[in-house]
Amino acid sequence: MSKTLLSLGHGYSARALAPRLLAKGWRVIGTTRSAEKAAEIAQTGAEPVIWPGTDLSPFFDEADALLISAGPGPDGDPVLAEARAAVIAAAGGLDWAGYLSTTGVYGDHGGGWVDETAPLTPATRRGQARVEAEAAWAAIPGLPLHIFRLAGIYGPGRGPFAKVLNGTARRIIKKDQVFSRIHVEDIAQILEASLKQPRPGAIYNVCDNDPAPPQDVIGYAATLLEVPLPPAVAFEDADLTPMARSFYAESKKVSNDLIRSELGIDLLYPDYRSGLEAMLKDGGA
């Protein structure tokens, strides 16, 4: 008997998971806000639903699993703001629910290591909104919730190559700054592994093995492309948008021990070098 995934906010990460499930006979229903994106989703074999604007109750009734990718907005979590009653009604009938959060919930740890037990001390309003959204989903009675705290996402169509090629990339230097990252295909395999072995209440960090300074990633992309290194600019002198600057408010190394030990994950791209090399080989530049 085939199973059904209802994907709320069927974006970049969810679209990487969908082909894996469709190949195994799953039905995948994905919500999106526009007709244009709905047409793109339909081409992948998933069933698009334009939402808000459609009553989701029938889709909740049909779902065996729920994936929540939609990020919080000014009014909190958008799904719970619009469809809390439907979520509560469906919760007990679900085998699995996954919420895609962010490692931003940990805040700044001065370049130190964090795991899933680390205190949640977000340094940005976006991070605080994620803490609140995690708590809101965890408060739904009977929901078999799994929280996935994603590091910086990259993959086909999303990476440093374009900026390096068009000359807008810079190597922003901030002392002791490190970020963790994850390739979108590794997100997909981690979600699939969790679906196969649910543990309601689980929280997983989703990141690769190699936290690294952002300037190293830009530099390696330039090396792969065989172009000159982008200029190095001190963080204090960089003309950054408030959004870009906020990313540098946090420095930490995120541990992925749990996904490896509990879910048996062998990362496809254990570091940014292998990920970028694969992207370039596949035409991702």
From TrEMBL:
- Residues forming the NAD-dependent epimerase/dehydratase domain are 9-207
Q: Which UniProt keywords apply?
A: NAD
Lipid metabolism as a keyword of this entry, yes or no, is no
Organism domain of life:
Bacteria
Keyword Chloroplast set for record: no
Q: Which InterPro entries match?
A: Epimerase_deHydtase, NAD(P)-bd_dom_sf
PANTHER family, A to Z: EPIMERASE-RELATED (PTHR43574)
Name by which UniProt lists this protein? SDR family oxidoreductase
* Organism name: Roseobacter ponti
